[in-house]
Amino acid sequence: LPALAALLPPLPGLGGPGPAEVGLGALPAELRAAVRTLVGDLDALFSALGLREESFAVGALSRIVAAELAGYAPARNRRRTATNKASVVFVDRTLDLAGAVGHHGDNLAEKILSVLPKLPGHKTDVMVNMVELTALQTTDETYSIIAPGCLAQPNDPAAKALWESFMNLKQKEAVMEARRHLVEAASRENLPIKMSMGRVTPEQLSSYIKLFRNNLKALENHCGLLQLVLATVQTLKHPQTSKWDNFLAFERLLLQTIGESEMPSVLNQLLPMIKSYNERTKDDYTCEDFLVLLVYIYSVVGEIESGKELDAAEEEVKKALVKAICDEPEPSPLLQKIT
Fold it and tell me: Its GO biological process terms (predicted)?
């Protein structure tokens, strides 16, 4: 439901409802309106599917949504006449922040969705640069002339099968699947493809894609597949992808450290890595990267005992982060929103 992508449960504590306040009336007006919109949207979706749902909820806001849906008059009428049964589980997004900010998946789909720019107006699809399929020279001026490709290819069976393997296979196997699909498509179109064994590289996939470039019929027949393979090439070449592996290694190290020592020593380990714009190399973490890491640390550590040592360590991290954010020559939209 992209229209409601910004709907987040209020965090407990400052200004958020406590565990005792679980009625819709306890929420701020804006959140109440969003919950009612969500309930209306879900009811419309379930009507279209002819569903009679049984709702389950995990988390305070989920309980409110489930209760509102149960008592919503149009939904009650629908449940009387609907023929298909379904179980619906609502889960508060804030209960799994570690899952949302972690880099644990060896999964190509997750990486593509993380590193490529979002398709305008969409929350779950990305822009795939299609310039490689044209005779244009890739300069920045020509970039926006060609309409972007995307991941949703409902009319292309090969592309749908490939996307399934991006989600379900390990990255290495998924990239091999991309090569296999390309080779099969090229063979069907009688394109002069040289099959090679061994490791699949982005350059190899690019060279296969270029074979389709001057053959309009082949381009048209396999356009969906080519968009998915281009997304793979662009993701594998993206600087953020090598950083992903650094994140994963660091998160594993943090989990070990948290198991063995207290939170202050973990924060003190983090401190020297917070560098201002002028001190950073391309391998260093940016301000946003640190915010993501901090969300991860505080989510996996659970309850923390406060004390002087923790306060001092947190204060140092705050100072370093504020300095780094203030030194950014061009703050990203996220940093601008935060400041």
Answer: vesicle-mediated transport
Q: What per-residue confidence (pLDDT) applies to 264?
A: 84
Tell me the per-residue pLDDT of 235-268, one tens digit each, with 9 for 90 and over.
Answer: 999 988 878 878 888 888 888 887 767 888 888 8
Q: 310 burial class (0-12, 13-18, 19+ CB within 10 angstroms)?
A: middle
Residue 76 identity: R
Question: Distance between CA 294 and CA 317 in Å, rounded?
Answer: 10
Q: Could you tell me which of 199, 285, 295, 290 has the C-alpha nearest to residue 242?
A: 285
User: Which tens digit of pLDDT belongs to each residue from 151-203?
Assistant: 999 999 999 999 999 999 999 999 999 999 999 999 998 888 877 777 888 89
**CB burial readout 109-130, b (16+ within 10 A) else e:** bbbbbebbeebeeeeebbbbbb
Look up residue 120 and give its two tokens.
């305008």
How far does CA 263 lie from the centroid of its chain? 28
pLDDT on residue 22: 63
Q: What share of the chain is helix, strand, coil (3-state, %, to 5)?
A: 60, 5, 35
Residues of the chain with pLDDT under 70: 12-22, 105, 137-143, 260
DSSP secondary structure string, 83-151? -EEEEEEEE-GGGGHHHHH------HHHHHHHHSPBPTT-SS-B-B--GGGSSS---HHHHTTSPPB-S
Distance from C-alpha of 236 to C-alpha of 228, rounded to nearest angstrom: 12
- The rounded distance, in Å, linking the Cα atoms of 15 and 18 is 9
Q: How far is 51 from 73, CA to CA, in rounded Å?
A: 15
| Euclidean distance between the first and the last CA atom of the chain, given in angstroms as a whole number | 28
CA–CA dist 61, 27 (Å, integer) = 9
Name the nearest CA neighbour of 128 among 89, 159, 85, 105.
Answer: 159
